[in-house]
Design brief:
It contains 8 helices and 12 strands. The chain has about 280 residues and is an alpha+beta fold. A 5-stranded antiparallel beta sheet has the order 10-9-8-11-12. Strands 4-7-5-6 form a 4-stranded antiparallel beta sheet, with helices on one face. Helix 2 runs antiparallel to helix 3. The longest helix has 14 residues. The chain is globular, with a radius of gyration of 19 Å. The mean pLDDT is about 95.
Length: about 280
């Protein structure tokens, strides 16, 4: 029997990952095991290792990078490959993609966020409302919307941060997520934040609906995936429209994205096929 391991959060991480684990169990049955990414034990006996539930890596980046290095040294069969996971950890990858012609949400970076950076960003974007997020982040950790009178929250002051203009379409239409398995499009959803919020995650009141991916959205997603350093076994591509209706990449999730398989018409069969094809012969 083939053995597959999905990596999970550290036991101290409070968010409930059980429903997603149940989806994976239905697809893979007894071939599947779960281990926390912070304490995996010996992984050498697994045919494939997927960090799909390795939530919380952003809270200890040093340990995460050290762990990636260890998996590389041991030549473990990790999907996506460790080099790609490492590249995708820091959202500076957005600048790499932009340099290759991928349209991203307008973004500037700060090595140590301060009030002067915010003032420059407001002038640069001609925007009264900004979004700030850590360069290494997930689940909207450390992500804030700043109005003209808002001070920088203490927990992100003088940290390495990305600064973006608020995209009105987040509240008006929502954020599109497109899912690709083995480079092939699977399904798409539209995520909308709760009234008055900008965060689309469920823990903040966000909600999702299945949607047909517009052709321009698919073109952007496929351009982004063509520009990454190595082929991705799985990917979630998040995007939003700008004021002219053009899709802009928000994030490219290659580490531990929620895959929303319940919204896929095939119930996750394409994902399961990708996993099967990723197993060694």
């Amino acid at each position: 029997m083939r053995h597959i391991c999905i990596l999970t959060p550290d036991p101290s991480y409070s968010e409930n990952w059980a429903p997603m684990a149940d989806q994976f169990r239905r697809l893979f049955g007894p071939a599947l095991d779960f281990r926390p990414w912070t304490a995996t034990g010996d992984l050498a006996g697994f045919d494939l290792i997927l960090p799909l539930l390795a939530w919380g890596y952003q809270r200890d980046p040093a340990l995460w990078y050290q762990t990636l290095d260890q998996w590389d040294t041991e030549q473990l069969p990790v999907a996506n490959p460790c080099a790609l996971l490492r590249w995708n950890t820091d959202k500076a990858y957005l600048f790499d993609l932009a340099a290759k012609g991928v349209t991203i949400v307008p973004t500037i970076s700060s090595d140590a966020l301060c009030a002067a950076d915010i003032a420059k960003a407001r002038q640069h974007f001609a925007s009264s409302k900004l979004i700030i997020k850590p360069a290494i982040s997930a689940g909207a950790d450390g992500t804030y919307a700043l109005g003209e009178e808002d001070a920088i929250p203490f927990d992100v002051l003088e940290r390495v941060m990305l600064i973006q203009p608020m995209m009105p379409a987040i509240a008006e239409e929502g954020e599109y997520s497109l899912f690709y398995f083995g480079g092939t499009f699977s399904h798409a959803i539209l995520k909308k934040p709760a009234l008055g919020d900008f965060r689309v995650q469920e823990q903040f009141g966000g909600r999702e609906t299945a949607v047909l991916a517009p052709a321009p959205a698919r073109r952007l997603a496929e351009a982004a995936l063509s520009a990454i350093p190595a082929p991705a076994a799985y990917a979630r591509v998040d995007m939003v429209r700008d004021d002219q209706g053009q899709f802009c990449l928000m994030e490219l999730e290659l580490i531990e994205p929620a895959l929303f398989l319940s919204f896929a018409e095939d119930g996750g069969a394409a994902f399961a096929k990708m996993v099967e094809q990723s197993l060694p012969a």
